[in-house]
Design goal:
The strands form three sheets. A six-stranded mixed β-sheet has the order 2-1-3-4-5-10, sandwiched between helices. Helix 1 packs across helix 4. The chain has helices at residues 14-24, 66-72, 96-106, 137-156, 198-202, 226-230, 241-253; strands spanning 3-8, 29-35, 51-58, 81-88, 110-118, 187-188, 208-210, 214-216, 236-237, 261-263. It is globular and about 60 Å long. It is built from seven helices and ten strands. By secondary structure, it is of the alpha/beta class. The mean pLDDT is 95. The protein folds into two domains: 3-173 and 257-263, Rossmann fold (3-Layer(aba) Sandwich); 187-239, Alpha-Beta Plaits (2-Layer Sandwich). Strand 7 and strand 8 form a beta hairpin. The protein binds flavin mononucleotide and iron/sulfur cluster (SF4) (2 copies). Residues 11, 185-186, 202-203, 205, 207-208, 216, 221-227 line the site of one iron/sulfur cluster (SF4). Flavin mononucleotide binds next to helix 1 and strand 4.
Length: 264
Amino acid sequence: METLSLVYYSPTGTTQKIVREIGQNTGLKLIAENNLAENNFNLQTETSNNSLTIIGLPVYGGRLPLAALENLKKLKSNQSPVVIVVVYGNRDFDDALLELKQITSDCGFKVVAGAVFIGEHSYSTDEKPVAKDRPDAKDLETCKNFAKKITSKLKRNKNLNKLSEVVIPGNFPYKERNQLPVTLYPETNNAICNQCGTCVDVCPTNAITIEDTVITNGELCTWCCACVKYCPHEARIFSNSTINTIQNRLYQNFSTRKEPVFFM
Ligand SMILES: Cc1cc2nc3c(=O)[nH]c(=O)nc-3n(C[C@H](O)[C@H](O)[C@H](O)COP(=O)(O)O)c2cc1C
Ligand code: SF4
Ligand code: SF4
């Protein structure tokens, strides 16, 4: 194994951080990094058996984010090895890693390892923190350990065809996707907003435009909270009774720290 490609979807940056940390610690030469949210998604068709791909996505409602799937399914491989990772906000990952295994296998990859990691929940706030500031130093150390396990497995098994299937937890049919109300999305405090455009740049679904004020298309908003977390002036606010109920439930029931798990 010589080279490495990274593929991820990561509106609030936790999945990107974890995938990069795992990748860096494999010691392989990074040749491509693909963000599934990009319009000009750079289709990466590395099929060499000498190249490892690491694919990471966050968990949305126990599944993979729908907005990432169109680009994800464009990947094509001829049985080259892939490591699959999902990052969840300390509630549960349900069927998301199994879904990622199925999709990457359908794309032609050979799954050699999987892992679930924890990232700060998109709906975490200072008042109701859920997995706040994760991945933290301990998680990044775990990324290193995972990378070591991957490289030693690949060294031990030169013939990937002989590898036994990696068993991933989850159920099929998968959990039903949650329907988000299109009338609810983050709002802008126009008294603070200086129309800097950061929210437009970070929105993975192009739901935001700036005309006289910041306009949000509720049909396109996936509630990812990137605009809220990255607005440099705290002018994007996501506060309504539905999201507040979700935040209370997460804070009350899912505040106890969970740890990453590997599937080799
Ligand atoms: C719409 C939505 C649904 C989510 N559903 C779940 C979930 O089912 N379980 C969970 O533990 N975290 C859930 N999360 C939290 C994210 O998985 C978590 O914050 C992750 O770290 C976000 O990844 P990112 O920083 O790469 O965007 C959800 C977040 C969003 C925005
Ligand atoms: S990032 Fe914040 S300040 Fe900048 S345009 Fe968007 S809402 Fe306004
Ligand atoms: S508008 Fe919606 S989809 Fe776009 S960044 Fe904000 S929360 Fe995410």
